[in-house]
Structures are given as structure tokens and as C-alpha cells.
């Protein structure tokens, strides 16, 4: 590569005679070429550094999910849920490498499914590098991690491996191809024939990631039924409290760290805080954390195209969507230990609609470029209904696709008796029966695994002086512990 230094003496010598004009032109052009190559190399390095940093942030969400899941389940299932989160990443890595990435971004392809780069063959290519694969893999395993929370504490380990591989190899990649690939039939970056002249705007995945994971979890939890003790004989809801609010808070902060738009989450957290205080009479940190995450799930669709004040509206509504979905879940006797289907599915759906209502014209043009006849934007921002119609289409097709694929998978696993563990294993806890021991070390006198759960609880609340007086009234949480 030629030196970028240039002196007047060097150039003056070449311009002394007309015969040297060609040499002078070559000299100047060579330097321009050198500068251009340096700029191109620098741009490539900056782009890939930014993409890798983004991939690391998205992958950090996996740690957040792991901590959130661990804190939300009972102590006797901690090792099980932590292992499922690790294997979501591991099995998802292999399945996404072999099939998922090709189905999602294997260009050139048709609008439905990609058809190149299986096993990363002939990749990197002009369309992308390994950093792009890593970035997209991090999103794929996030969808899988959402689903694992819905079916926690009662699912056979082999079922986790099967559904996680299928989701990251086929179900999720097809959805991401539709909306994120330049070839996708509903992509806003498609070169022509945009859906309603707009395409779907789902910048960071309210529909592509959150709805996919939430709806998949919905079907898994629905088909295998609630955990033992979650509803009593009269159908009354019994709280099965997770064992560590500290881990829930830690996981929430890790997920917060990986999110770029915070106003929606903050608003949702505060709305949940005061709403639950009015509804149930106390301040609950776990509810606030879930409300915060619901705001994040909602804002990811439109975070690049809405004003900050709109993000506050998004978070406020997301909190009530989550509260409403949880109320409905109780009425339907639906059990989701992490509220994953309600949080990611419900709030993700609201986020997709929110974008169609509040997307700002200037931001839409800046992010997605101009198109002939102008870009449709938010319905309530004066942009007409075309973008909102496209967002509705996303909701319908994501719900339909995930239901048509993951529903039969979970039903088949159920029929083959591969989905749910036995009642005995569920009562004892999967850490003891499936993973060689508990996650925490107990003193012998504190270990109630060899005693009936009711006797263990009564020991805990028995008067210290050993008198035979009647035990105090049990709280709803203590009752729930006895029931399991």
C-alpha cells in the first residue's frame, strides 16, 4: 500500500513538463486509493466492533434470564432451571449454526425462508461476517430462554433439549427471516413490494423475539398443566413463591443493562408498583421487576422510531397489559412460574401495536430510508393506517406460525410421556431426583427432604418452648409451601 504522506516537492517534479502529467495523475490517484482503502478498513472495523459489542449485550441477557429464572423457582429446582438456561445457549448454538442462520439470513432467497449458509458454508460472504452470525444467535437463544421459564419446575429434561433445538433451528429463524432479512416478505428493508408500502417495523424484537418465546411457552405450559399445588381443590390460586427475590433483582438489572431504551421500563415499573399496592395492599419487588421487563419487551419494537414521551406511554400501558394478562391466567388456571407468556407474549404484542400507533415520521425515514410515495408512519402521528395494518399482520402471523409449530411439538411430547415429570419427582424437586443434589448446602437439621413437607413446615412455625399450643395462622405463602 502506498504511503499516505505527500510533499509539494514530489508533486512539483511531476508537473514540470506536460509529458509528466500522466505520472502526476497516477501519483495523486494512488494516494486517493490508499486513503479510500484505509477508510473502508476503518469503517469495517468500527462496524464489526459495534456489532460484536451489541452481540455481547444481547448475550448478557442470557445471564439475566438465568438469574431471573433461578430466583423465580423454588430452591429445590434451582439447578434444573440453571442447567436449562445453559443448554438453551449450547443446543441453540449448534442448531442455529447448522440450520437456523441459513433459514433466517441465507440470501439470496425467497420471501418465506432462507436457503444458503447451512453450517456456515460459504460464509462469511459479501452480505455478512461471523460477527453478524454471533449477534443473531444471541437473539435466537433469547427466544428459547423465554420459553424455558414458562414450563419450569415440572418439565422433563429431554423435552427442554427437543423444544430448544426445534425453536432455534426452525421456528424462530423463519420469523426472523420474514421481518429482519432483506428478502423477507414483510421486511421494511425489502427492495420492492413492501407490505402495505411499509413493511413491519420490529426493530429489536417485540414480535420476533418476545412474542415467539412467549407464545411457545404459552403452549408448553398449557399442554402440561399447572404445577402441583398451584391451585387448590376448590380452584383457588395458591402462590408458589420463588426462593430468591435477590436473584430476581439481579437478573432484572442484567437485562436492564442490555436494553437501550429505559423510559418505558421505568414507567412500567412505577406503574406496577403503585397499581399492585392498590390491588393487593403491599409493595412487591418481584412484581416491580416483572413490570419493568414488560416495559422493555414492549418498547423493543419501536425503540428506534419513537419519541421519549411516547416510550413513557408504552411503559404505562405495558404494565396494565401484564397485570391484566396475569388476572386472566389465574381465571383460566394457567400456571407460568415466570409470567413469561404474559410478560413477553402480552407486552410484546402491545409493543408491536404501539409502534404502528406512535412511530415518528422523521425517525422512520432516518432508520429505514425513503421509498417512493413516502414512508408510512404511526397512525396517531398522522401517518395513516398502513404501518398499523402491517403491525397487525405481524401479530397474526407470529401467533399462527408459533401455534402451528410449537403446539403440535409440545402435544406430541405430552402424548409420548416425554413432557412432564412424575408427581413424585415434582414433589421432591428435580435437583434431588434428576441432578444429583440440591443447589444449596443445608445443615442436616434444616434439610426437610426426608420428611413430609407439611411436618417440615410445622416444625418451622412450632413455638420455641415446645408447648402444645395451637400453631399460629398460616399466611397464604406458608399454606402454599405446605401444599407442595
TrEMBL record:
The keyword Ion transport does not apply. Coiled coil: none annotated. Keywords: Ammonia transport, Membrane, Transmembrane, Transmembrane helix, Transport. Residues 446-484 are annotated as: Disordered. It is found in: Cell membrane; Membrane. The chain crosses the membrane at residues 49-73, 94-113, 133-151, 158-180, 200-223, 244-270, 309-329, 388-413. Gene3D superfamilies: Ammonium transporter AmtB like domains (1.10.3430.10). Residues 465-484 have a biased composition (Polar residues). InterPro entries: Ammonium/urea_transptr (IPR029020), Ammonium_transpt (IPR001905), Ammonium_transpt_CS (IPR018047), NH4_transpt_AmtB-like_dom (IPR024041). Residues 50-257, 258-440 form the Ammonium transporter AmtB-like domain. Its main location: membrane. GO terms for cellular component: plasma membrane. Belongs to the ammonia transporter channel (TC 1.A.11.2) family. This is Ammonium transporter. It comes from Quillaja saponaria.
Amino acid at each position: 500500500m502506498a504511503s499516505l504522506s505527500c510533499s509539494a516537492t514530489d508533486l512539483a517534479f511531476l508537473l514540470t513538463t506536460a509529458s509528466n502529467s500522466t505520472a502526476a495523475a497516477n501519483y495523486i490517484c494512488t494516494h486517493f486509493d490508499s486513503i479510500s482503502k484505509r477508510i473502508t478498513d476503518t469503517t469495517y472495523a468500527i462496524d464489526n466492533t459495534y456489532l460484536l459489542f451489541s452481540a455481547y449485550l444481547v448475550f448478557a441477557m442470557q445471564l439475566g434470564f438465568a438469574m431471573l429464572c433461578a430466583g423465580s423457582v423454588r430452591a429445590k429446582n434451582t439447578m434444573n432451571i440453571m442447567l436449562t438456561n445453559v443448554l438453551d445457549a449450547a443446543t441453540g448454538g449448534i442448531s442455529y449454526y447448522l440450520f437456523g442462520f441459513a433459514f433466517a439470513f441465507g440470501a439470496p432467497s425467497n420471501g418465506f425462508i432462507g436457503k444458503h449458509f447451512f453450517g456456515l458454508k460459504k460464509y462469511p460472504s459479501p452480505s455478512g461476517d461471523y460477527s453478524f452470525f454471533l449477534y443473531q444467535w444471541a437473539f435466537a437463544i433469547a427466544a428459547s430462554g423465554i420459553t424455558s421459564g414458562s414450563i419450569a419446575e415440572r418439565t422433563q429434561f429431554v423435552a427442554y433439549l427437543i423444544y430448544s433445538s426445534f425453536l432455534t433451528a426452525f421456528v424462530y429463524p423463519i420469523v426472523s427471516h420474514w421481518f429482519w432479512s432483506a428478502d423477507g416478505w414483510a421486511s421494511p428493508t425489502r427492495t420492492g413490494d413492501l407490505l402495505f408500502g411499509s413493511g413491519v417495523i420490529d426493530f429489536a424484537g417485540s414480535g420476533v423475539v418476545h412474542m415467539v418465546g412467549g407464545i411457545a411457552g404459552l403452549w408448553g405450559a398449557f399442554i402440561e398443566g399447572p404445577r402441583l399445588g398451584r391451585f387448590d381443590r376448590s380452584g383457588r390460586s395458591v402462590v408458589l413463591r420463588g426462593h430468591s427475590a435477590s436473584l430476581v433483582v439481579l437478573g432484572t438489572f442484567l437485562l436492564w443493562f442490555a436494553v437501550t431504551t429505559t423510559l418505558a421500563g421505568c414507567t412500567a415499573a412505577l406503574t406496577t408498583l403503585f397499581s399492585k399496592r392498590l390491588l393487593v395492599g403491599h409493595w412487591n419487588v418481584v412484581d416491580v421487576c416483572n413490570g419493568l421487563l414488560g416495559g422493555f419487551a414492549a418498547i423493543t419494537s419501536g425503540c428506534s422510531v419513537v419519541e421519549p414521551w411516547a416510550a413513557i406511554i408504552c411503559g404505562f400501558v405495558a404494565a396494565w397489559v401484564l397485570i391484566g394478562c396475569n388476572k386472566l391466567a389465574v381465571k383460566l388456571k394457567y400456571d407460568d412460574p415466570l409470567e413469561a407468556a404474559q410478560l413477553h407474549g402480552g407486552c410484546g404484542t402491545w409493543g408491536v401495536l404501539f409502534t404502528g400507533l406512535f412511530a415518528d415520521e422523521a425517525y422512520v425515514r432516518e432508520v429505514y430510508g425513503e421509498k417512493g410515495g413516502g414512508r408510512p408512519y404511526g397512525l396517531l402521528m398522522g401517518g395513516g393506517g398502513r404501518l398499523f395494518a402491517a403491525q397487525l399482520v405481524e401479530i397474526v402471523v407470529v401467533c399462527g406460525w408459533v401455534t402451528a409449530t410449537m403446539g403440535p411439538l409440545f402435544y406430541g411430547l405430552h402424548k409420548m410421556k416425554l413432557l412432564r415429570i412424575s408427581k413424585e419427582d415434582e414433589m421432591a424437586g428435580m435437583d434431588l431426583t434428576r441432578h444429583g443434589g440440591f443447589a444449596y448446602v443445608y445443615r442436616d437439621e434444616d434439610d426437610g427432604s426426608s420428611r413430609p413437607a407439611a411436618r417440615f413446615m410445622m416444625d418451622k412455625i412450632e413455638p420455641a418452648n415446645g408447648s402444645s399450643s395451637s400453631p399460629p395462622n398460616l399466611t397464604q405463602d406458608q399454606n402454599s409451601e405446605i401444599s407442595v
